[in-house]
């Protein structure tokens, strides 16, 4: 039964009625502002506009606005591990550093154990507690996720090779950090190499308004060798200090919200996504929407290939049970039931397809330009 007019719903949602009509039309429902819709349709609309709907009774609904749901009550917040990404120019030692940090700091029992590549991993450090490292090509992951409005990185380690100095991608990384307002720690790498000139790196950074500690500024810097594993504990200490200043926290006691770090189709396991839990707890059996896909969590797997019952904020895990492969940066949201999940996903897929067919239409001009 119809419970609310489009106009009234728009009012309660604080959205434009014409935008709702447009969305309804795109969903294949040509409905005018004065017409009434049922609870299911209303909920679909409400969800799509980023709000949450509550069914007060069979004939009444209540809208919870995103500002209210967006922020967790401060009393529910618990400390969570920092999420760290490594950025820097080609060949400056990003992968070497991630490998070294992982090898150096994994607890004795795990050292030498088989570790899977899942695009992100956690390290238990002696001095800095648990730290989550994103192990994806830094720039790509960072920009892709930011374009989609999903920020996952708390701290960036900017790797600069001391023999090569500041290079185009170093400068690009600085720009990204600044735009995203993410603090960075400068790791001046390859100090074991002949011709290494860390001081020159610091000076060149000044030109980009990065004043490191050694130059009297506030950006932490550390000279390292990823190859020889020099000063890695210092780097960890600085990370821990930075993280402490940020007082990172999240509410673990709510349905999970996570961001896709990477995803692919696996021969044996189907669509697999590596996600980073932003808040809440993800559990086996949870129903979810992720971008234009949906699913039910069949397995939660940690960075050691171990099956978990649940994952908490700051943890990177693999999720199995997806209807298809989502994109990096897509947000995974746990929802109440499978019908809802499928509806939202299929609506989004339609929108994507529409966007695709209307994007870049082939004009006569560019059809023939190659011939001319
Ligand atoms: P891309 O992923 O291609 O952008 O490179 P990367 O930044 O991940 O660099 P990678 O870790 O692959 O290192 C590039 C080369 O530098 C490799 O040959 C490493 O062995 C070498 N290298 C990395 N760190 C050090 C270091 O501290 N000292 C020396 N001497 N060589 C290093
Ligand atoms: Mg690399």
Automatic annotation (TrEMBL):
Keyword Magnesium part of the UniProt annotation: no
Binding site for GTP: 88-95, 135-139, 189-192
Start and end residues of each Tr-type G domain: 79-249
Subcellular location field: Cytoplasm
Source taxon at top rank: Bacteria
Gene Ontology terms for molecular function: translation initiation factor activity
Record keywords: Cytoplasm, GTP-binding, Initiation factor, Nucleotide-binding, Protein biosynthesis
Stated family: Belongs to the TRAFAC class translation factor GTPase superfamily. Classic translation factor GTPase family. IF-2 subfamily.
Role noted for this protein: One of the essential components for the initiation of protein synthesis. Protects formylmethionyl-tRNA from spontaneous hydrolysis and promotes its binding to the 30S ribosomal subunits. Also involved in the hydrolysis of GTP during the formation of the 70S ribosomal complex.
Protein name (Swiss-Prot/TrEMBL): Translation initiation factor IF-2
Gene that encodes it: infB
Whole sequence portion shown: 259 to 630 of 837
């Amino acid at each position: 039964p119809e419970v609310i007019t489009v106009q009234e719903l728009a009012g309660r949602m604080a959205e434009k009625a014409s935008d709702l009509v447009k969305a309804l039309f795109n969903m294949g429902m040509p409905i005018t502002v004065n017409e009434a819709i049922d609870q299911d349709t209303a909920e679909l609309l409400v969800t799509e506009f980023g709000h949450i709907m509550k069914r007060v009774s069979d004939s009444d609904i209540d809208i919870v606005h995103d500002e209210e749901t967006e922020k967790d009550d401060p009393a529910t917040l618990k400390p969570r591990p920092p999420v760290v990404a490594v950025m820097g120019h080609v060949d400056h030692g990003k992968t070497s550093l991630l490998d070294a940090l992982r090898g150096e700091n994994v607890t004795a029992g795990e050292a030498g154990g088989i570790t899977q590549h899942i695009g992100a991993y956690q390290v238990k450090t002696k001095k800095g507690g648990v730290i989550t490292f994103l192990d994806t090509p830094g720039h790509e992951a960072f920009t892709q996720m930011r374009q989609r409005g999903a920020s996952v990185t708390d701290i960036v380690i900017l790797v600069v090779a001391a023999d090569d100095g500041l290079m185009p991608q170093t400068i690009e990384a600085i720009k990204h950090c600044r735009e995203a307002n993410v603090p960075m720690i400068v790791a001046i790498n390859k100090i074991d190499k002949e011709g290494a000139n860390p001081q020159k790196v610091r000076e060149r950074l000044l030109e980009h308004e990065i004043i490191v500690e050694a130059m009297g500024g506030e950006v932490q810097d550390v000279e390292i060798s990823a190859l020889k594993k020099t000063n890695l504990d210092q780097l960890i200490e600085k990370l821990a200090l930075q993280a402490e200043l940020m007082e990172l926290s999240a509410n673990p006691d709510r349905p999970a919200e996570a961001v896709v770090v990477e995803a692919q189709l696996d021969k044996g396991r189907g669509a697999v996504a590596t996600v980073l839990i932003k808040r809440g707890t993800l559990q086996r059996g949870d129903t979810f929407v992720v971008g234009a896909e949906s699913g039910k969590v069949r397995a939660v797997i940690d960075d050691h290939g171990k099956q978990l019952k649940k994952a908490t904020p700051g943890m990177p895990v693999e999720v199995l049970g997806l209807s298809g492969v989502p994109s990096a940066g897509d947000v995974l949201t746990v929802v109440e039931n499978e019908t809802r999940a499928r509806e939202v996903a299929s609506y989004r897929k339609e929108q994507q397809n529409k966007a695709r067919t209307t994007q870049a239409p082939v004009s006569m001009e560019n059809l023939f330009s190659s011939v001319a």
